[in-house]
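Troubleshooting: if your tokenizer reports a length mismatch, compare your output against this known-good record of 315 residues.
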Amino acid sequence: MKKKVTIIGAGSVGATTAFALLARNAASEVVLIDINTEKALGEALDIKQATPFIDNCDIYAGSYRDAVDSDVVVITSGVGRKPGQTRLELVQTNVGIIRNISTEIIKYAPNAIYILVANPVDILTYAFLKFTGLPKNQVMGTGTVLDTIRLRTRLAEIYNVNKQQVHANILGEHGDTSFVAWSTATIAGVPLDEYNSSIATPYNIPTEYKREDVETYVRKSGGKIISRKGCTVYGIGMSTTHIVKNLSGSAETAMTVSSLHEGEYGISDVCLSSLSLVDSTGVRSIITQKLSDDEMRKLYESAEALKAVIKSAGL
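Known-good structure output:
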């Protein structure tokens, strides 16, 4: 299925996402837009010269006008997080950038599905919805999709199992108030709490671990990568590609994108991550899975923390 994707922001994350989209056949046409037109041209040309090894596809640098008829628009533009800086400290600057982008892009791609990637992603997703007035199904943030794959990678290492058989999710803010929904975590359908005792012939003892350490690993991974190399690109590039790819499917896919809550779990007027069904129309529905009392408390606390930032930003 042909899919046109416009990426606003040709920095490290935008360029990596563009390459991943084409390499995984998640898009047939990619437009790169950046205020630094030379950077966008350079990235597009570099990726274009790799496309002979990829199925029919095209990539080019352009302007907002070139976003016409886009199926998906990915927004990565924004000031990057500096070492030691929290995602929420970025809010004022990046909200201003999103305001300017929304004014232009909506003129040319009013029917596209929008994916916010720049941080703080939950705040910017909410801001984009407010600035554009688009239906809530058309706008989502990458949310905790990246956090979730970090969690699944770590648990797969601990239990020495295939990563694709680990089903565990990070919910809430993409940031310091995120948490693991341990009560719903499974390996190959077996509840995590029961997995070790369910192996009839024990032959491999999983590494002992504390759940708090796993949560810290997930929450602090981004900061550790940034302190070492200046930015994170591969995980978020593939996470965004995973979302785009599933927007083409005929079946709904459950993932932890950031979306507007309007009463689900008793939470309203804030964007954050809970498990959501995504299909060709965007966010089809939020899944209100049963969570433990402690997890519900953490979800409410995450929502309140984000609402406080939204209020301080004048949104």
